[in-house]
Each structure stands twice: as structure tokens, then as C-alpha cells.
Write a structure and sequence with these properties.
The complex is a heterodimer of chains A (about 375) and B (about 700).
Chain A: H1 2-26, H2 32-35, H3 37-70, H4 76-106, E1 111-112, E2 115-116, H5 117-156, H6 159-164, H7 168-172, H8 181-184, H9 202-224, H10 231-253, H11 268-286, E3 302-303, H12 309-318, H13 332-345, E4 359-360, H14 370-381
Antiparallel strand pairs in A: 1-2, 3-4
Chain B: E1 3-9, H1 11-39, H2 52-84, H3 91-114, H4 127-149, H5 158-177, E2 180-184, E3 187-190, H6 194-211, H7 215-229, H8 236-250, H9 265-277, H10 279-290, H11 297-302, H12 304-326, H13 329-335, H14 339-369, H15 376-409, H16 421-426, H17 429-459, E4 465-471, H18 483-488, H19 491-515, H20 531-542, H21 557-563, H22 598-606, H23 608-611, H24 622-625, H25 633-642, H26 651-672, H27 682-692
Antiparallel strand pairs in B: 1-4, 2-3
Helix pairs in contact in B: 1-2, 1-3, 1-17, 2-3, 2-7, 2-14, 3-4, 4-5, 5-6, 5-7, 5-8, 5-19, 6-19, 7-14, 8-10, 8-19, 10-12, 12-14, 12-15, 14-15, 14-17, 15-17, 20-27, 22-27, 25-26, 26-27
Classes of the chains: A mainly alpha (about 375), B mainly alpha (about 700).
Chain lengths: ~375, ~700
Amino acid sequence: MRTKTKYTLGLLAALLLGAATPVWAAGPPAPSIFSNPLALTFIILMVLLLVIIGILANILIGAADVKLKKRKKASGLLASVLTGLLLLASPALFAQDAPAAAEATNTAAKTIAGMSASTFYILATVIFLELFIIIALLINIKFLLRNEKDKIAAETETAEEKANKLSWWDRFNALRPVTEEASLDLGHDYDGIRELNNRLPGWWLYGFYFCIAFAGVYMWRYHVSHTAPLSAQEYERSVVKADLALKEYLKSKGEAVDENTVKMMTGADDLAAGKAIFVKSCAACHLETGAGSVGPNLTDDYWLHGNDMKSIFKTIRYGINAMPPWQSSLNNKQIAQVSSYIKTLHGTNPPNQKPPQGNLMKEEAAPAAPAADTAQAKPVAKN
Amino acid sequence: MQVEKFYYDNKIVKAFGIATIVFGIVGMLAGLWAAIQIYYPAISLNLPATTFGRLRPLHTNAIIFAFVGNSIFTGVYYSLQRLCKARMFSDKLSWLHFWGWQAIIAAAAITLLMGVTTGKEYAELEWPIDIAITLIWVVFGINMFGTILKRRERHLYVAIWFYIATWVTVAMLHIVNSVEIPVTFLKSYSWYAGVQDALVQWWYGHNAVAFFLTTPVLGLMYYFLPKAANRPVYSYRLSIIHFWALIFIYIWAGPHHLLYTALPDWAQSLGTVFSVMLIAPSWGGMLNGLFTLRGAWDKVREEPVLKFMVVAITCYGMSTFEGPMLSLKNVNAISHFTDWTIAHVHIGGLGWNGFLAFAIIYYLLPKMWNTQLYSKKLATNHFWLGTIGIILYAVPMYWAGFEQASMWKQFTAEGQLKFQFLETVTNIIPMYVARSVGGLLYLTGALMMVYNVYKTVKQGSFIAEEAAEAPALVKEAPHKEYWHRVLERKPVTMLVLSLILVSIGGLVQMIPTFLVKSNVPTIASVKPYTPLELQGRDLYVKEGCYTCHSQMIRPFRDEVARYGEYSKAGEFVYDHPFQWGSKRTGPDLARIGGKYPDSWHYNHMYDPRSMSPGSVMPPYPWLLDKAIDTSNTAAKIRAMQTLGVPYPEGYDQQANRDLMKQAETIAANLKKDKIETAPNAQIVALIAYLQRVGTDIKLEPKPLAENK
């Protein structure tokens, strides 16, 4: 047994190494991975599986130990080989995790669930690999234990004693010993099928009663005493709660921008952000150049719903006719950014322009270059 | 007492068995094909027949009615004869049943791929096929009851109770849900509208699971498990309690498919509480299965038949516990409309139904061909491959469902939705890939079984007529018996009692929903569809849009922010059939009307990715070329009038003129956006419908008008 403790210690070391690996790999180089709930789930899963592998490996070694002793051979050899293998295995896992972290920092191009695609696939591969190892270990343990269990059982108990013994499981389910089966037999015979008349397990019966009571209480609360909210009330409450939270938030941030206070933004950052939103959300209908296709041309002098900053802001925020409202997908700052960007498109004269729609709305001293536009636009917005 | 000699008919069992295997493979292939389309749309081959919207109904119908259906008949025809100690009542009826059922399946496959559908899930088949199903079901019933009545066994075994309850309930469900008014040979409208249609449909849909995928299969378990394990059934008492409780409670649970919808709250609550009460009766079946194996677990290690059964029953236990949990409103708020539901049904479908069907096939082969199974090892490998397939299918789908739902619900601190709908879909594409791998493994296992079956049949010799003998039943002097034993002697009483028990739930839920006006508060501004919109709606149904798009905004803050005001019962009063849907692979469309310009829809149907990059929707280019069939407009209007839709008297004659007028307006509108289209193109009708959906309520100053 002393040898066994030794191997257990060795194993523990291997485990710790293995367990530490993914944490380390995901830690310092790419802290962003920690903030991703999915990645975190992955990593926790990885560690958990690794612990299971450790435990199973321990059992396997134990089983192998017993088996080897039975054969009266030196047990040290195999056990140390196994420990060595496990120690080897955990750096192998370690090696797989390291590139995952490296990838995460390098590639930002394609992401899956907020991780880079390669990180995702590598993490997933590691998990599947661990699953395979677990299955392999289980098969081996099963193989090693099968004969042993039978033999040990045969030595310690006679068949009858064994049959009469009730485990906690049997008692829990109100099961009678197999030897008493004859007394439970009802004597039915359907094409050779006999029927016993076992008592219903207590947990099942009382579980059933509990569910029926639950049903009564549920109906009472929702439809008699009205102490639980129906769907519509639940909705109203959630809206009130969210509105309160939003007010609190806005208060904490100071006055937020809206259509009454919005001003043309001229900062390069804001315009770049505006452009990004435009390309993502507006280009499908207005084209990337703003020349218009499904939606109207945004570069000419004709406007359906006004060309000043406040009007554009309002059109985007609340939508009008075919223009969808964006207030639920874009916040006011983002709407101000994209409105500002749209104003920079004026006069860029892109190819394939849609014919004019709406009223002629000349901007004072309409500039030719978009760079100058941003400088000149401010007074217009005040109109 | 005179012993009579007779023969069991194995030929009919063999025929149904072969059909089970063939349609199992077909159904699984259709499922795999549809699953791959979600991340690789090009595999639809751009053919109308093989787009997701038509393939998905084919998959569900093939698996439920062709694969599981034939497996039920295989098991029933084998076990019923032996449990009654009698040959089937009539060989002619047996074969009429067999060929009739296969013809229905063939007709279903063809019509579904053609886009002929009623638009009601698992009841998509059109009225001529519905009638055929009814007739064949009656044939099956006569044959089954005939056998039971001429039995040589005094009492009915629990398996037969389940067969009887199955037969009578499926008949009731099918007939009530299929009440529809034919317009043409292959087109009908559901008799019910909106909320009522939804209630009836999910009463049917839920109980198709209960009485087609559960009770008959429990009956099969009660025969094949004790036979295969050679162990007595664990508890007769449990059989009685769980049987009657199960059939009585199951029928009430339908509304749990409609939680947070426009269905009246009281009906939703009934769905929830009866689902919760269903846990114990369902688990009674599981316990009676697993505890029957007591003392036979060493055999499970050796015997693939028992292995399949153990996993099947375990999956049954898992999904019947999960079902009630999903019926709790707070869980359903997360799971509904996501892939969580898909994972749930596949634990039942792949695990419970599939594995039990495989177990029965492996059990019957050596018995009917008087030989050993060709390869036990191959069967064991099939078992493991199938099990891994189930896990690999279900885990990613659970994950996908949970993750998508949480993304839908997230708001930023400023009160904006954090994710656009499309982001929540593209985010879970890796899970879709993983689940199709799971499906592929499961299918591979089934193909291994096909080979094993072929080899076993080759090496054995088929026993078409199996000799048996039993004494005839003679009249007994009356004597005292346990009350249920008395019932077991009276199949007709049992049938009637079952029918009464299963009718109660449906009646209590339906009668008030149909008759009490406050359950569907009317909204004055909701008007019938124009003829063009009606034609467009029929195209929406035909293309199976409901398989991916719901039309039901639930009263959640995130759904109202994303889609608009939550759906009201009064909005759907002219919807024959309702199109609320059950899964959102695409966004909800209940308020799509007026959200985008006509030209957006035109471009989007032609190539979805041009308007919403990264979309997984298949393109529908044929809608741009094909013309609407206006020859049936008048008939459609008349049918709607019969159903109570208030078109003016004689409007059917004017309908096509109005239709063309509206079509030309839309065509002109598209022309402004540089799109040339024929006014009678199908796309124009579809645009008309989409632009109408959910807009009526906006014309009402106060949407929640007085209830009276």
C-alpha cells in the first residue's frame, strides 16, 4: 500500500500541472478570454474533465495494482510507467493550450462566440480529446475490474446472502429481495410474461402527491388569489423596472444626448464609428457610398425628412415610413455618430446615384470636399 | 378443455419491419439534409422541393408516421397475436392496413415536397390524405379489436391497454385537428382560426407525442422488455396507476406549447400544472421498465437488445422530466423558440423511439428467421455509435438554445438590445455543425443495422406461419375478482372508459376558448386579408416559412423592443390556419408589415444575403418568376366566407379585380426602386401579405379595446 500512496502523490502532481495549464494558458497573454463567458465555460469544463481523468487514472492504477499483485509480479514497473505516461500526457495538453492563447491575441478576424475561430476550435478539440481519454480509461477500468469484482464477491458472500441483502438503493425504492419474488408473483402469464406486485416506491407516490398539490397552489395563486402576475402584468413590471434602471444609469452619466440637444460631431473617432455603423446597418438600403438603392440617395440636395442634424437624428432614431426605427439597436451616441457621418457624405457625388426624392434643401455654402463639410456643417445644424 | 391449434402471422410483421427500416433511413437522411442546410444553404440545391421549409415537414412526418409508425405496427402485430393467443382477426385487413399506410407515406412525401401543406405542424398533410389516414386507422382498429375479441386469453395484458388507448385517442386527435374546408383537391383551410386553431393544433401536436410516440411505445416496452430480459414485470399496481393517470393527464398539457402567447392565461396555466403532474405517471413507466431488469443486469452487459432498451427507457425518463420543467413559465421563457426544444425532442426521438425500434428489430430477427443474429458485435457497435450520436446531437443543441436565448434577452446599460437577431444565429453555427455530426453518427449506426439485418435474414429461414396452441375461452361462472381484473376482461368497456378520460382535458380547454368571447377580445381595426394578401399568405404557408419564423411576439421587454408591441389574441381572428410557429431560426414576423420597403423584400427573397449579410435563409428565386394562380381566388374567398370571414356578399366575383389592382400598385412601387416585375408574380403577393402582417392593430387608437 505504501507504493500506492507514492503513485497517488505522483498523480496529484500530474493533475495539478494539468489543471494549472489551461488557466495559465488563458491567463496573462489574453485576459480578454476570461471575460468571455463561453470561453470561461470551456475552460472550467476542461479543468473538470481533467480532474475526472485524474481520478479515473488513479482508479485504473489501483485496479492494475491489485491485478498485478494477484499475478505475483513486481507492481512497481507498470505503475511507474503509468505515472510517467500521465505526466507526459499533461504537458501534451499543455502544449495544445498554449497556441490557443497565442491565437487569441493574434487573430481578430473571424470570431465564434466572441473568441477567435481557432481558439474556439482548439478549446473544443481539447475537450473532445479529454472525453476520449475518459472513455478509454473507463473501458480499461471495466476490463480490469470485471473479474475481480466477481471473485471478491464470491469469496465474501454466498449467493443467497447476496441476494437477500438490501442496499440503500433497494430500500429507497421499496424493492424486496429477489429471493422473495415468488411471494410477489401474481400468477399472471401472458405469452410467458409474469407480473409481480411490488409496492410503489415512496418517493414516487409522494412525489406524485406533491405535484398534484403544486398544481392546486399554482392555479390558486394565478387565478384565484391573484398573488402571482399573469403574462401582461409580468411584462408591465419588467418595463417599469427597466425604465427605473435606465433613469438611474443616465443620471449617473449626466445629461445624455437626444434629438433636442444633438450636435454635429466632428471628431475623427466619432466619424469613424459612424462610418462603421453605416456600413453595417445602413449600406444594405442606402449603399456604402450613400448613393441610395432601396432607400433614398443621401449625397444629393434632396431630402424627404429634413437635412439638419436633429431631423436626421430623429429619422434614424424613430424611423419613418419605410425607414425602420433604430432606437432599440443603436444608442443615442451611436445615432449621433452615424448622423454626423451621413452629413459628411453630402456632395461626394458617388456613381449610380438614385434619382432625387423629397424637397430641395440646399446647405449654405455647400462644400465640395467632405473634409471641409465637417467644418462647415456646424452652423447648419443650428437651423 | 379442448386445445386449439392456430398460426401466428409473421409475414405482416416482416412487412412492417422492413418498412420501419426503410423509412427510418429516409427520415434520418431528410433530417440530416435539413440540418446541414442551416450552415450550408447551398446544399438545398436551390430547388423549391428541397428547401428547409419543405424538407423539415418531410423529416418530421417521415420519422413520426413512417419510421415510428411502422415500428409500432411491427411490434403491435407481433405482440398482440401472442398476448391474445390468436392470429390477427383478418389477413385481408392486415394487408390493407399495411399497403394503405405505405401509400399514405408515399403521398405525404410527394405532396410535402411539392409544397402542399396545411401549415399545421405534424398535421401538414392535405385533406385527401387526412381522409385516407382516417380510413386506414379504422381498418387497423377493426383488425386490432377483432383480434382482441376472438382472443384465447381471458385478461388483457397492460401492453394491450396502451394499444387500445392509443388507437382511440389518435383517432380523436386526428379527426378534430383535421377539420378543414377544401378549396381545391390539394388545398384546404383549417376550420379554426388564430387562438382557437393554435389551441386545437397544440392539443393535437402535444398528444401526437403522447399517443403516437409514447403510449404505443410503452405498450411495446411492456411486451418486449420482459420477453428479452426473461424477467417478470416489476409492478402490476404501478402499471394500473401509471396507465390511467398518464392517459388522463397527458391530454391537458397541450397549452404548454403556447406559454406567453395570446392564448388565454387560464389555459396556459392548465398546460403548466398538468405537465407538472405528468412527471410521476411518466416515470411510472420508466420504473416499471428499469426495475423489471432487476436481476438481469448481467444480461444487459451481453445483450445488445437490452442495451438499446436501457438507453431508450433512460431517455424516456429524461425527456419526460425535462418536458414538465420546460412547461414552467420561467424556464419556457428561455427555452421556447430556441434549439433547446429541438434537443429535447431528439432525446425522445433518437433515444426513446429510435432505440426501442432498433431493440425490437434486433429481438425479432432471430425469432422470426429461426437463427442467431449475424453479428452481436456489430449490433453493440451500432448501440455505441447511436449513443454517442445522441449525445453529440443533444449537447450542442442545449448549448445553442441557452446561449441564443440569453443573447436575445441582453440589453445594454443604455437600454438598447445588445445583439441584432442575426448575430444570435451566426453565433451558434458551430453548434449546428456539431449536431449534424451527431446525426451522421446515428445514421451510420442505423446503416450498420441494415447490413446486420440483411446478413441475418440471409442465413436464417423465415417462419411465415408460426404454429401455436391454446385452449379456447369458455364461459366462467361469475366469481369475485380484483376490480381492475374485471376491467381487463372487457375490452370494449376499456375502450369507452379511455375515450371518456382522454376527452375531458380537450373539452375543458376548448369549449370556453370557442364560446366565451372574453377569451379572444376583438379588435375593431383588424380586417380580413385582401385577395392578394390571402394568396400571399398561402405562399407563406406553402414554402413552410413557419418552420423558421414565428408570428408571436411574447410580452417580454426584449421582444417588444426587437419586434414591436406584443401579439394580441384579437389580431389572429382571420388566420386560417394560425402561423405562430414554434422555432425562431429567423426573426419573428408578427410585425414585419411596413418594417422594410417592398424592394427590400424583393431583393431579400431573391438573395437574402444581399439585404442581410450572413443570413442563413435560403433564397427563393422562383417566387420572382412564377405567377400566382388566380383561378382559385374566388373559391378561396368563398371558403373563407363559409368559415365566417366577413367579406361582403358576392365579393368572390370582384376579388380578382381587387387583386390585380393591389398587385399593380406594388409593382409600380417596386419600379420606383428600379425593380421591374410582373404584377402577377408570386413575389408580389408575398410582399403584399408580409407588408400587411401585424399592421392592423396600429390603426386602432387604443389597441386593448373593451373586452365585451
